[in-house]
Specification:
This protein has about 300 residues and is of the alpha/beta class. It is built from nine helices and twelve strands. It has helices at about 35-55, 85-95, 105-115, 180-185, 185-195, 205-210, 215-240, 255-265, 285-295; strands at about 1-5, 10-15, 25-30, 60-65, 65, 75, 100-105, 125-130, 135-140, 140-145, 245, 275-280. The strands form three sheets. It has a five-stranded mixed sheet with strand order 3-2-1-4-7. A five-stranded mixed sheet has the order 10-9-8-11-12, with helices on both faces. The longest helix is centred in the C-terminal third of the chain and has 25 residues, at about 215-240. It starts with a strand and ends in a 12-residue tail after the last helix.
Length: about 300
C-alpha cells in the first residue's frame, strides 16, 4: 500500500493507493498554520488511515516547496512556516519510517506521467495555474528533481517577449520583478482585469462575463492566453516535451487547450509544434496520487530522481 499526502496551504489530503493505482481511502483536513501542529496533523491522518485499513504503507508527501539537496531543509515554500525546516526528518520520526518529500508540482507531473494525460510519453511537463504558478517534470515515468531541486520551476522565470503594457512589471513575492506567477496565476488574472478595467472580478467571474459577451472580460482572457502561450513556448524550446499538462484552477478553462497551441507556434523555434497541451486526467487528485507514486519502485534519492 502506498500513502500519498498533499500538504497544501489550506488543506492536507491523505490518499491510500493500491499497487495497481486504485484509490482505497481518502481524507481531507484543514492545514494548521504552525509547523509542529502541521506535522502532527499529517502523522495523525496517516496513522488513522493505516488503522482503518489494517495495513501500513510507504509515505510520500507533496508540498509547495522543495527539499534542499544541500541541507535537507525545505526551501521556496509559499507556506513560509515550512521554510528552513527538516520536514522529511521530522515527519519520518513521527511515523517511524522514511518519508519521501517532493515539490507538489513534481508530484502532479509524476501522477499524470504514470497513468494520466501523459501516460506513455517520454517527457511530461506539469504546469500549475492556481493561487501560484509552479511546474514539475517527469521523464519516462520518473520524477526529475534536479541538482538544485528546482527542475520544472517554470513560474519564477520572467515573462518572455514583453509587450508595451508589460514593461513595468509587478513584483513577485519571491522579490523579483515580472515573474510568470504575477501574470499567470489565478490572482494575477484578477489583478490584470482590475488594473485595466477597475472592476474586481475573480477568474470564474471573468470567464462568465466573457461568455456573456463582455468585451473587457474577453480582452483579459486573450491577454492571459497570449502570455501563457509565450511562457509555454520557452518551455517547449528548452525541454521539447511530448505533453504539457495543466493543473490548478485555471486548468478548467477549456478554451486554453485550443487557443494556446494556436498561439505558441509564433514563438516555438520549430517548423511545426507537435507538443500536446492537455487537462489532467486525475484533476485535483493528481498531486496526492503523485506523492503516493514516489514509492512506485523507480523513485530514488533527492537529486537523482
Amino acid at each position: 500500500m502506498r500513502i500519498g499526502v498533499d500538504l497544501g496551504g489550506t488543506k492536507i489530503e491523505v490518499l491510500a493507493l493500491h499497487d495497481d493505482g486504485r484509490e482505497v481511502l481518502r481524507r481531507r483536513v484543514a492545514t494548521p498554520r504552525e509547523y509542529e501542529a502541521c506535522l502532527d496533523t499529517v502523522a495523525r491522518q496517516v496513522l488513522e488511515v493505516e488503522r482503518e485499513l489494517g495495513v501500513s504503507g510507504t509515505v510520500g508527501v507533496g508540498l509547495p516547496g522543495a527539499v534542499s539537496p544541500a541541507t535537507g531543509l525545505i526551501k521556496n515554500a509559499n507556506s513560509t512556516f515550512l521554510n528552513g525546516r527538516p520536514v522529511p526528518r521530522d515527519l519520518g520520526a513521527r511515523l517511524g519510517r522514511e518519508v519521501r518529500v517532493r515539490n507538489d508540482a513534481n508530484c502532479f507531473a509524476l501522477s499524470e506521467a504514470v497513468d494520466g494525460a501523459g501516460a506513455g510519453a517520454d517527457v511530461v511537463l506539469g504546469v500549475i495555474l492556481g493561487t501560484g504558478c509552479g511546474g514539475g517534470l517527469a521523464i519516462r515515468g520518473h520524477s526529475i528533481t534536479g541538482t538544485n531541486a528546482i527542475a520544472g520551476e517554470w513560474g519564477h522565470n520572467p515573462l518572455p517577449w514583453p509587450g508595451p503594457d508589460e514593461l513595468d512589471p509587478p513584483r513577485c513575492w519571491c522579490g523579483h520583478l515580472g515573474c510568470l506567477e504575477v501574470y499567470l496565476s489565478g490572482p494575477a488574472m484578477a489583478n490584470d482585469h482590475r488594473r485595466v478595467t477597475g472592476a474586481q472580478l475573480t477568474p470564474p467571474e471573468i470567464v462568465e462575463a466573457a461568455g456573456r459577451g463582455d468585451a473587457q472580460a474577453e480582452d483579459t482572457l486573450e491577454r492571459y492566453e497570449g502570455r501563457l502561450a509565450r511562457a509555454l513556448a520557452t518551455a517547449i524550446n528548452l525541454l521539447d516535451p511530448d505533453v504539457i499538462v495543466l493543473g490548478g484552477g485555471l486548468s478548467q478553462l477549456g478554451r486554453l487547450y485550443e487557443s494556446v497551441p494556436r498561439l505558441w507556434v509564433r514563438w516555438v523555434f520549430s517548423d511545426r509544434v507537435d507538443t500536446r497541451l492537455r487537462p489532467p486526467v486525475h484533476g485535483d487528485s493528481s498531486g496526492v496520487r503523485g506523492a503516493a507514486w514516489l514509492w512506485g519502485g523507480w523513485e530514488g534519492a533527492p537529486g537523482s530522481s
